[in-house]
Automatic annotation (TrEMBL):
TM spans (from-to): none
Mitochondrion keyword on record: no
GO MF assignments: transaminase activity
Family designation: Belongs to the class-V pyridoxal-phosphate-dependent aminotransferase family. NifS/IscS subfamily.
Aminotransferase class V domain boundaries: 7-373
UniProt cross-references to InterPro entries, sorted A to Z: Aminotrans_V_dom, Cysteine_dSase, PyrdxlP-dep_Trfase, PyrdxlP-dep_Trfase_major, PyrdxlP-dep_Trfase_small
Source organism, top-level taxon: Bacteria
UniProt xrefs under Pfam families: Aminotran_5 (PF00266)
Name of the molecule in the record: Cysteine desulfurase
Record keyword Kinase present: no
Length: 390
């Protein structure tokens, strides 16, 4: 990192592209730029082979078969396809299952997809979570019956970093005869994932959360027993008919290489990142002892800290007073509206505390010097924001 460059601690919003990923992508822009669907000639076939090799790497990261991986533009599209696609296919088949169950702390694209389906005659059920951000499994069990079509629960929360008990949730969904979808954008490459162990029928992930490029993601769609979806849009029938459109071979190759690196280095990354997180928190608490961590500390992804600063203080003011640190006050997908985090409010947090909260995302390339510098800068920023007249 250049000496005067800001410290980047917003790895839940996006991760930097790993140099190995960039190197893998480059030839598919500069040397073989062919359409991977143009299999009538050698360059097209080479591009298709590269796409299929990348698909296999993504499948390997989550314990799936390559043919179960549908390539998309990212997790938002994958989540929409999973939820709306499953619902619309079931409706077209005359199914009586109309209930779709999710949590209040899900990503906006999941919540909006579920709520949009109400206009199509489906019954959205949005369950509260426990104060630590984890699903209340008894409440979930009670919400499911023979009318339930789909359960959608995020694997790792994008704001508070809590890791849901996916095996238990998958078992509950299966016991009710419902499909189980998980948004694993923040989980893939950070925690071990196996679609068979968690009994997932559908799983979404995104390239730019695992040190790959933006604009590419994937949806796992179970083959046995077969899960059927209605496509979101019409076209040439690529991706098993689920997702038409020309695949961007360089982005797909980048996703595959990112998945390969993540699978190889998952445990090493997790241990190193957890050490940097603990170092950062200790340094910050030495300066701001009353800072509070939100969400379960036991079931938490290694790089996440969601921190409420003692107040009265505003997170936006802390960030403004700490220009050398890149952090956020919530999900990047909700940042267009300056309002308290709905995730934090779902934990029962008062509005003034939610407004005093920052999300810290430590990543693969965060150094000890980075976390020391960031902790000192945020502590100074908090002091300035809390007492601006001094």
């Amino acid at each position: 990192m250049r000496p005067n460059r800001p410290v980047y601690l917003d790895n839940h919003a996006t991760t930097p592209v790993d140099p190995r990923v960039l190197a893998a992508m480059r030839p598919w822009w500069e040397e073989n730029f062919a359409n991977p669907h143009s299999v009538e000639h050698a360059m097209g076939r080479a591009a298709e082979e590269a796409v299929e090799a990348a698909r296999a790497e993504v499948a390997g990261l989550i314990g799936a078969e390559a043919r179960e991986v549908i390539l998309t533009s990212g997790a938002t599209e994958a989540n929409n396809l999973a939820i709306k696609g499953a619902a619309r296919f079931a409706a077209a088949q005359g199914s009586d299952r109309r209930r779709i169950v999710t949590l209040a702390t899900e990503h906006k694209c999941v919540l909006e997809s579920v709520r949009d389906l109400a206009a199509e005659g489906f019954e959205p059920v949005v369950l509260p979570v426990r104060p630590d951000g984890l699903a209340d499994l008894d409440l979930l069990r009670k919400a499911l019956d023979d009318r339930t079509l789909l359960v959608s629960v995020m694997a790792v929360n994008n704001e508070i970093g809590v890791v849901q008990d996916l095996e238990a949730i998958g078992a509950i969904a299966k016991a009710a005869g419902a499909l189980f979808h998980t948004d694993a954008a923040q989980a893939a490459g950070r925690i071990p994932l196996d679609v068979e162990e968690i009994q997932a029928d559908l799983l979404s992930l995104s390239g730019h959360k695992i040190y790959g490029p933006k604009g590419i993601g994937a949806l796992y769609v179970r083959r046995r027993p077969r899960v059927r979806l209605s496509p979101l849009f019409s076209g040439g029938g690529q991706e098993r008919g689920f997702r038409s459109g020309t695949l961007a071979a360089p982005l797909v190759v980048g996703l595959g290489e990112a998945a390969r690196v993540a699978a190889t280095e998952l445990m090493l990354d997790g241990g190193r990142i957890a050490g940097q997180r603990d170092r950062f928190l200790a340094a910050l608490r030495a300066e701001v002892p009353e800072v509070r961590v939100n969400g379960s500390l036991d079931q938490r992804v290694s790089g996440n800290l969601n921190l409420t600063f003692p107040g009265p203080v505003d997170a936006q003011a802390i960030m403004a007073a700490s220009p050398d640190v890149c952090v956020s006050s919530g999900s990047a997908c909700s940042s267009a509206a300056v309002e308290p985090s709905y995730v934090l409010q779902a934990l029962g947090m008062p509005e003034h505390e939610a407004r005093a909260t920052l999300r810290i995302g430590i990543g693969r390339f965060t150094s000890p010097q980075d976390v020391d510098r960031a902790a000192a800068a945020l502590a100074a920023g908090w002091r300035h924001a809390a007492r601006p007249e001094q």
